[in-house]
Amino acid sequence: MTTQLVWFRNDLRLADHAALIAAAERGPVAALFVLDDETPGHWRMGAAQRWWLHHSLASLARGIGERGGRLVLRRGRAGPIVRALAAQLQADVHTIVHHEPWAAVQEDEAGTIIRHHGATLAPPASVLSGTGGRYRIFTPWWKKLLEQMPPPRPRPVPNVRWADVLGVASDDLGSWGLLPTAPDWSGGFAGWQPGEAGAAARLADFARRVARYDDTRNLPAVEGTSRLSPHLALGEVSPAAAWHAIADAVGEAVAEPWLRELGWRDFSANIIDQFPDHGDAPNREAFACFPFRDDPAGLKAWEKGETGYPIVDAGMRQLWATGWMHNRVRMITASFLVKHQLIDWRHGERWFWDTLLDADYGNNAQGWQWVMGSGVDSSPFNRIFAPVGQSAKFAAADYIRRWVPELARLPDEAIHAPWEAGVALVRAGVTLGRDYPQPIVGHEAARARALQAFAAIKAG
User: Fold this and answer.
1) Verdict on whether the full-model pTM lies above 0.90
2) In this structure, is residue 17 part of a structural domain?
3) What is the C-alpha separation between 459 and 282, in angstroms, rounded?
4) Which domain does 433 fall in, by range?
5) 397 with 221: CB under 8 angstroms?
6) pLDDT 10s digits, 288-344
7) 33 pairs with which residues across the strands?
8) Is the CB of residue 101 less than 8 Å from the CB of residue 277?
9) Who's near 113: CB < 8 A, 6+ residues apart?
10) Both 25 and 57 in a single domain?
11) How far is it, in rounded angstroms, from Cα 258 to Cα 434?
């Protein structure tokens, strides 16, 4: 029987893996993962996610090894490596289709391969309008996607007859240098469990909490979100498995707010499938001439969580320490960078790409262009989040105390805007400019400046 080579990419699981299931039905299976830093160019995987990848690959290799197989690891340009190994093994190649622009290049260079769906709830090109067109706005797209939902039930790990690949050269995972060296900045990642088992545990935990999701998802001080995003980003759980686990727990009606967020991930794949350069170029032409400020010091203050706005700084410090940030705070911090600081959104996008464990090209690009107002489906630019108002509205006081401990002794009513705290600041023993920064820009002045910049591009 012909050997079947399964080329794993950002689908590092054995359960509900369409390519593995199909390959197992046709013959003995060989498994391959290629670390390709060349084809993606400047979108090579970021540092935080490389930490996750190391542990996820170790988990996948153990899972295959326990079943009698071996995961072959190679580093280099993926397409030629896949083609060469397929020729060496005289194998058919199976892979799950991904929608990043470099994924298509990899597939083309790999030669003849058998493509399978499984990275999204439905193939992006299958969600079409009545006239056969592609959607660019989320709400009508979501309504159309629901006509195909629920997705098929997830399938278990198949019975696999593994091919003998003991003589096939394979890299040592440790030689790839995916883990940080001194100084080791990954100490705060200890709460995560990369790998398929970790994804299953996280999914089970969220299934017990999802009934409260709609009430708590915007509260950064509360464990209200799923925290499944890193597992979904590297495909340790399929979107279909996530859908059914959560819908089965509480019913689709109660689960709908979270299922809609799962759908947003699919929608982002739909957008980058139509606009591959969405991570590099604004979709709205007018924003190509936006008068951004060149402010390296301001960018560094934002990255380090030293802007003087506690909710912004708490989010940026949480990101650096844990590789993750609450979604509401992602919007606040992104809005602050592009609208209060007038710094190019692509600088923020690249920082998130390098520091997020759940970095996803489609989600990242879509999120930043949504905030900027430059995307195909985005918030208007003149919707400018007031950081203090957002912080108070979403009860972020304890969140700030955790991540900005120098303000921990301030009362709730003062912690969101310490420069207005007066005697409370004195009682807390905090001196602005010494213990915590003064705001790097005033909200009203920043808002006026941003609206003036927006008016300039509208005027042409």
Assistant:
1) yes
2) yes
3) 18
4) 285-458
5) yes
6) 999 999 999 999 999 999 999 999 999 999 999 999 999 999 999 999 999 999 999
7) 8, 73
8) yes
9) 7, 82, 93, 94, 95, 107
10) yes
11) 42
